[in-house]
Every structure is written in C-alpha cells, then in structure tokens.
Write a structure and sequence with these properties.
alpha/beta; globular; binds 4-nitrophenyl phosphate
Length: 150
C-alpha cells in the first residue's frame, strides 16, 4: 500500500499527515510520502511550527523536504489524500483517466464520510492552528490505519 498526502505548499499540513501516518504503520507494509500542488517551497524543510507540534507528540519530521506533486504520482501511489477542496480539485485536474481520479480523496472524508470538510490552511495563523491541524490529522490517520488493518 502506497499513500501520498497532498496540500498546497508541502510544508505545513501534508508533512504532518505523512509523519503521523508513518508513526502508526509499519514501513514494510505501508509507504507514505507527501507533496504540494505548488512548488513555492521546493526543497525546504517543513514549517517550524509543523516541526514543533510533531515533536511535541514524539514525531520527527525533519527528514522531509518539500516537493511538487507530479502526474507520475498517480502511477506511484494507490491512494492520494488531499488536505482541502482546492488541493483536491488541483490534483483531479491533472488526472489522465478515471483510475487516476478515483485514487484522490479528501483526508477528512475518512472521519466525516459524506461531508467535504477541509483541513484548514494554518500557514498565516498562529500555533493553535497547527495544534488543531495535528489533532484532525491524527484522528483521520487512526481511521486510515483501521481500514488498512481491516
Ligand atoms: P500547506 O500550507 O499547504 O499546508 O503547506 C501553506 C504553505 C505555504 C503557503 C500556503 C500554504 N504559501 O502560500 O507559501
């Protein structure tokens, strides 16, 4: 199983989603990566505030570097989780066929199946926004792990 987490900049939300899911699964069974729909922060470390909130919960995400989502990711991953509706539409607009498009889901649909709930972009806010994002992603990743483990 290969899972890709995607947000806009790949420095705030999707690096947390990647780190949290990795902390809950065995790397032998589940490969997890993250990317951004925009390349503004290509090659950068995650945002300091994401690094800090992950560290608070015992997760080190400082091995991650921002990269841009590419069409090849549809071939490399089984599931692609978008953090918000804008990310979702940007990824789906790059899909080549229904098989590609069907791999894309909003991550909070795992918690709220029939609602289009987005993980709010915490970039322009304060530390509480990052705590909030961490908690949402932690809950969503719990559900993802339950599904993987059947
Ligand atoms: P992310 O947050 O998509 O969760 O990584 C953002 C990071 C950077 C920007 C926007 C959102 N930016 O505009 O640079």
């Amino acid at each position: 199983m290969k899972i890709l987490m995607v947000c806009l900049g790949n420095i705030c939300r999707s690096p947390l989603a990647e780190g949290i899911l990795k902390s809950k699964v065995s790397s032998e069974n589940v490969e997890v990566d993250s990317a951004g729909t925009a390349g503004y922060h290509e090659g950068e470390l995650p945002d300091k505030r994401s690094i800090a909130v992950a560290k608070k919960y015992g997760i080190d995400i400082t091995d991650q570097r921002s990269r841009k989502f590419t069409v090849a990711d549809f071939d490399a991953f089984d599931l692609i989780y978008a953090m918000d509706e804008s990310n979702y539409h940007n990824i789906v607009s790059l899909s080549r066929n229904n098989e590609d498009a069907d791999k894309v889901k909003m991550i909070l649909q795992e918690l709220y199946p029939n609602e289009d709930v987005s993980v709010p972009d915490p970039y322009y806010g304060g530390d509480q926004g990052f705590e909030n994002v961490f908690q949402m992603l932690d809950q969503a990743c719990e559900v993802i792990v339950e599904k993987i483990n059947g």
